[in-house]
Structures are given as C-alpha cells and as structure tokens.
Amino acid sequence: TQLDSAGAGTWTAGPLVPGAAAGGDVQTVTNPADRREVVGHWRAADEAIVAQALKNAVDAQPAWDATPVDARASILEKAAELMEARMPQLMAMCTKEAGKSLSDGVAEVREAVDFLRYYALQAREQFVVEALPGPTGESNTLQLSGRGVFVCISPWNFPLAIFTGQVAAALAAGNSVIAKPAEQTNLIGYAAVQILHEAGVPAAVLQYLPGDGATVGAALTRDPRVAGVAFTGSTDTARLINRALATRDAGPLAVLIAETGGQNALIADSSSLPEQVVKDALASAFTSAGQRCSAARILLVQDDIGDKVITMLAGAMAELKVGDPGLLSTDVGPVIDADAKALLDAHAAKMQQIAKPIARATLEPGTEHGTFFAPVAWELQSIDQLTRENFGPALHVVRWKAADLDKVIDAINASGYGLTLGIHSRIDGTIDRIVNRAKVGNIYVNRNQIGAVVGVQPFGGQGLSGTGPKAGGPHYLPRFATEKTVT
Ligand code: ADP
C-alpha cells in the first residue's frame, strides 16, 4: 500500500502474516459512488495463512504481555499521532473505499485516534498492581494481564474507527491480535495495521487477515488457541461466532465481546419542537446513508403534532443532496455495495404494499452507476410492521396517542434489540418515564442520535444489540484481560 498517496488505484492490501505467502488471487476494489473507479486491490488469506497467523500469535503473545504497560501504551499513542498526521489520506480511503462523506471521514479518523489514546490512558491506569484489603495482615493484590490470542472481526460501516478501537483495546491489554476486516473495506484496515506496525507493534503481535467471514472468520473463531473475540457486525453472525467458540472441545473458554445491530426509535411527544424533531430525525436517520448501528429507523410522533412533523419532514427531505461523497455539498452518499442496495430495494417494495409514502429524496446527476439508495420515509400503522433491521437511509414514522406511551416503549423493547433511543420532549416526567422503561444502551434527549464520543459517551447496547461492555468506556479494556490476585 502506498499510504502516502491518495491517488486511486495505488492501494494494495493483503495478509500481514510473518512467514506466510502473499495471499490468494488479486481482487479489485471499486468506488461505490460509481463502481468504475479502481480504488485498489487486495488478496485474501487462505487456510495455510490462517494457520501460520495463529501459530505466530501464540508464540508472540507472552513477550508482548510481559512488555511494560507503559511501553504498550506509548506505542498506541505513537500510532494516534501517525494517524492524525495522515488524516487526508485516510479520509480519502474512507470516501473511495467505503463511500463515506467527507465529514464522516473526518469523524472516522478522529474516533480512531481517540480510541488509541483512550485505551492507552486506560491501560496505564488499569494495568497496575492494585492493593486490595488484607484483613489478616497478609499482602493482597490484584493485577490484569492479557488473555492470549484475540481475534478482532470488524464491519465495513466504521472501517477505521471500529477496526482500530477493537485492535487497540486488545493490544493495550497485552493480547496478540489477529484482525479480520470486513470484505468491503480491506484497504482501510490494512492502512491502520501498517500505522500500528510503524508505531512499534511487532509484526507477529498484530497480524492482518483479510478474507471472507465464512472462511477466514469461521476458521479463526473455531480454533482452540483463540482466547477471545471482539466482534462488531450482525446479530446473526454474532450467534455463529458464539456457537463456534462454544463447540470447541479444547482451549480456553473464550470470551465474546459483540456489538451488533439495532432497531432504533426516536420518540417525540407533543411538547417537543417539530423543527428540532425533524432536524434531529433527519440527522439520526440519514447521516452516513443510514449505515450506522445507532441510526434512527422509527420516528414515533405523538398524534397531535403528527401532521406538522410529517409535512416538515417531507420538505426537509426534498432538500437533501444525495450524490458524490467526495463533494462537501453532499449530505448522503452511496450505500456500501450492490447487496446492500438490493436489500433496501426489496424493503422499499414491501413498504410500497403496506405503508403510506411520505417522501423520497432525489439523486443528483452522475449517480447512475453507483450503489445509491435515495433516502425515503414512510408512515406505518404500527411498529410491528417492521420485522428486521433495514441498514440504510429508510425512516418509518408511526403516530401514537398520549394514553399509549408505555405501550409504545414496550413495543420498542419487544423487538429484542436495545441500542439507541432518541427522546424529544420538554416534560421531565415523560423523559424520566421513557428512560426508566426503555431497554436500550444509549439514550439521546432533545438532540440527534449521533454520538459515541470515546471516553464521554461509551457506545453499546443490550439484548440482540450486543454483549457489552461499551466501547470507549471504562469497563471495555478489562474484558480483554484476565485477573490475578496474589495473597
Ligand atoms: P454486515 O451485515 O455488517 O455485513 P456481518 O455480520 O455479515 O455484518 O459482517 C461483520 C463481520 O463479520 C465481517 O468482517 C464479516 O466478514 C465477518 N463474518 C461474517 N460471517 C462470519 C463467520 N461465520 N464467522 C466469523 N466472522 C464472520
């Protein structure tokens, strides 16, 4: 990879595994905005490379675990500096490989940098020998160390931030790491690993294994040498990984740290300001082309402001610029690939049968070859009409009556997902009532649902949305570690 070049076609990614071959056939990456521009190339890992990576990881872990935490943390901080310095290149990769808007690209790099610094800081604080009470006069201490080999499996929607966050935490805790990026974003993951190597992480301590989830991902998670998996992706895949880990009849009882999907709602009551509801619903539903786990899919609006909100929403959607994510004027870029678009098209066809259309944004000229899905909003009679997470710019509006507030919250809870919830209200009692009843991980009051600030707003859900602990929070790092007491 020519990391210092933002030029198209010059990036090449492949397995980074000492002692292994270069990988399978060269595959081409194209820009999702036109499916023509060649952005780079990549090669997948095969079975022999996976085997070599696992062996390297086992051999390299003890020395890394024995490296003073201060040294490990300094390496992560160095990587943060390098990433910051290369923001323009990394942003360009986010736009060209993942179709991210420029503002998303900035946020992506910032979040990755924040993860590196935060976990470095947390490691320094948490990986110390802590004195516990010694009531009998004996010395009594608690300390953390790495679990062993950690596998990090990441998604394409935050190809730099989530990838870097998982890897940084696992490394900070003293694990050796095998990182498998999503098939759609191999170049970005590769660039992140290169930066970490340049900062001083030994090559065998952090290895990179691009490839198919069903082959490379599955081979890693069923291997008895793996002590833990950090995963972000779909709930179905989290279950597959859980099963793979559970059916191993040798090796450590591995942990799974999973962050998965959501069926997120925004509840607005009649005391809320329609202008603000619409502005925040738009941001929550359509930022990053709706391809955020946290994105609002359902706008629940109290009936007496329903007409006003729906009219204003339609007006605002007509203003959205949907097109080239490399332009500053663009609000919404393409969805990640043809499969994602096909799923959304199928959903739209279904909604056409059962929902009332509210508005559909128009596509800018020049979008015809890309995988664009125009942002759309429908009105539904009930939340139950939505059966699955629709990962894209699609919003569903449902009206509710004051007497039914608890029922509305229960219906949200009934999905089994529990990731984000927006509340718009100016009545404290209503806000408290919703906060207390809702089974979700992140709640946003009178603002949009975009917000997972490392160290400030740790992110993660419950139920079908993930195992916790929250990424970017104080409880995340210890989950990658084992505890030892000495009495
Ligand atoms: P999405 O719907 O976001 O594409 P996936 O859960 O399919 O979510 O993918 C998230 C990550 O999980 C990707 O890196 C993918 O390659 C990986 N993955 C998919 N299937 C498996 C599997 N069976 N075992 C391990 N990893 C997998």
Largest sheet: 7 strands, mixed
Helix content: 25-40%
Multimerization state: single chain
Task: Please report the number of helical segments.
Answer: 13
Looking across the biggest beta sheet, what order are the strands in?
A: 13-14-15-12-11-17-18
Shape: globular
Radius of gyration: 23 Å
Q: What is the β-strand count?
A: 20
The bound ligands are:
adenosine-5'-diphosphate
State the secondary-structure class. Answer: alpha/beta
Mean pLDDT score: 96
Beta-strand content estimate: 15-25%
- Poorly predicted regions: 1-5
Overview of the molecule:
The protein has 487 residues and is of the alpha/beta class. It contains 13 helices and 20 strands. The strands form five sheets. The protein has a seven-stranded mixed β-sheet with strand order 13-14-15-12-11-17-18, sandwiched between helices. A five-stranded parallel β-sheet has the order 8-7-6-9-10, with helices on both faces. The protein has a three-stranded mixed β-sheet with strand order 1-3-2, with helices on one face. Helix 4 (102-126) runs parallel beside helix 5 and helix 9 crosses helix 10. The longest helix is centred in the first third of the chain and has 25 residues, at 102-126. The protein is globular, with a radius of gyration of 23 Å. The protein starts with 10 loop residues before the first strand and ends with a strand. Bound molecules: adenosine-5'-diphosphate.
